[in-house]
Amino acid sequence: MSPRGRRSSPTTQLVEYLNRSDNWCNLKDLPTLAKSRLRRAQNSVKRSKDNNDLLEFIGDRVVNLACSLIVDKVKESSDHHMFVGRVLSNNDTLGRIAYQLDLHKSAHLDQRDDFEVTEWNPRHAISPPKALADLFESYAGAVYEEHGWERVMDWLKQIFTPLLKPATEDFNRRSDAGCNFSDSWQSVDQELQDYQERILDYLDFKSKFLTEAARSALDALPASSLQLIFRW
Prior knowledge:
InterPro entries: RNase_III_dom, RNase_III_sf. The chain is mostly helical and 232 residues long. The protein has helices at residues 13-19, 35-42, 53-72, 78-89, 91-100, 111-119, 130-147, 149-160, 164-176, 188-205, 207-220.
């Protein structure tokens, strides 16, 4: 089994483009951030002080919206828009982008994440660790927080616009082969896993609030009511 259940890396035009380091030479000049915000964007140690959980949460929404708007300008059909928008913003793509932009080199990671990121490279037959995708989303969230929508959108356009052609080639290949959109290389099970990971990350981020809210609700119940147990 691949590390932590990660799937085999897909063989697509998009992945081949992402893995060529010469495609990224002119994109490594990242938007500048204040030192304090940069440190927060780079801190992926769970439950540590000033980690990047919130920036990642914001960046996830920013990246998904940006990709949808970028694809909308060139969409050939609703299926094309949905397919390309999804593959541009999934964890595999974002992880490869983060790796090419060297975001991992200055990151602070959990021991397990640090090992997986250090051991991975684009030549591997498995997808990149989710920690890499999280670093990209965190940086996008930090750019949005510091510079606003127009600046982060300009930056994301530079990154994602060159990916439209290979992603469209992958879509057209599937169409020529008579495949349904629902059969895209990212399986339904993997998509479900990605959503579950996002939900769990959010619940982890809100754990203190949820615990306190549940305790207040239990305290308000009459003693004769059914006992509920809330654990985190």
